[in-house]
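[stage:ingest] chain + small molecule (flavin-adenine dinucleotide)
[stage:ingest] validated
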Amino acid sequence: MWEDSEGFTKLRIAVVGAGFSGLVFAYKLASKGYDVDVYEEHKRVGFPPHCTGLVSMDTVELIGGPAKENILGTYNGVVLDVEGTRCTIDTVNRVVKLNREGLEEALLEEAEANGASIHLGVRVSRIDSQGLVEAGNDRGIYDLVILAEGIHGNLRGQIGLDHRLTTTYGLNAEISGQDQSLLGDYILIGFERTLEGFSWRFGFLDRILVGALSKRAREVKEKVASMVNGGRPRRLYGGIVIHGPPLRRLRLGKVVLVGDAAGLNKPLTGGGLYPNAWLSVKLSEIDLAAGDFYEVDRVAGMLVGKLLRQYRIARAYYGDTASGVVLLRSAVEAGLCDVLSGRIDYDGHERMISLVLSSPARGLRILFSTLSHSRREFYKFVLDFIGIKRGG
Ligand SMILES: Cc1cc2nc3c(=O)[nH]c(=O)nc-3n(C[C@H](O)[C@H](O)[C@H](O)COP(=O)(O)OP(=O)(O)OC[C@H]3O[C@@H](n4cnc5c(N)ncnc54)[C@H](O)[C@@H]3O)c2cc1C
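[stage:predict] done
[stage:export] tokens:
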């Protein structure tokens, strides 16, 4: 901490890693007047591209101006296609396709405009829980370190915050042209027993974006190639998608681990923008200068608790997608989309799960419908969900 010319005590915050998570924290904290230093090993932000950039309008509001300036398309909701059985879910807030690289550049510019010092092309080599940050010959001691190093970073291991994450591979391909088979302003999400994940397809500007994720990288490539259907993608990008679980305790001493590195992702889809935008807003509302780390732990704990509940469902689905697809198809046939339509947000998986599980009558309808499709796969999914390991 130091005193500025007017005698105000200023908290020194280091943000390590300038991907989406680091940048959204830097932007929010700098706008509150904290003295923020951002370290990023690459010479520019938004690089390499990997993310589809789909979020709810609610998340756009949470992020603020930089997200609003980078909207490429908006949609009424999603169409689920479960092996040819389709249903439409209108979401309470519109779904938004963001320009991800543009968003990161705008967050960086805004953070800098609010007084943050940006160190691009600087790799942090060491941190400790007392606020030490070492980059080459430079070392600084900070009051708070936001560690947002992504899945590939290795600093969290140095201080014992590493933990095992569940991952899949994701790939996006942008192709030219309009697609008449797209159902108006919706994101088409496809589930099939042979893909250990799911696929997506939607239009924006003058192009169509297709993509898929799965536990098997080869399966993703084959699925995307089949969706591109012999065309030549204008852009191809992807990477590792995190499905949690979140680290149970995000803070150790003066270091708070966030982003993909902490498993702060929606476990069903791997989306990381909403949880980190939410936490950055909550953190920026705390009086950090008062050293109130109890409040930091409290808001982090709220997010972690929510994500852990969703993780159990996701684990059952990815543990056995074939059974998950049977169950999902039954749920769609039993009126799942009528229940959810107009009541859920694209990023609000907690509410979606509680709506599905809240009615015993609906549960029974799904149960009977599933049993008529496949008794065996249904039992497998339920055992996975309640955490009983199957033999063989
Ligand atoms: C195919 C795909 C599609 C996705 N689609 C969506 C989507 O539609 N919606 C959504 O919400 N999420 C989506 N996600 C997830 C989302 O992209 C991630 O959750 C998010 O980008 C993670 O950001 P991050 O800042 O935590 O990590 P990263 O983006 O990996 O950033 C970490 C940064 O830290 C830097 N760094 C690491 N170590 C150091 C060091 N020692 N010193 C200095 N710098 C360092 C790295 O260079 C990097 O820039 C998708 C992900 C993938 C792969």
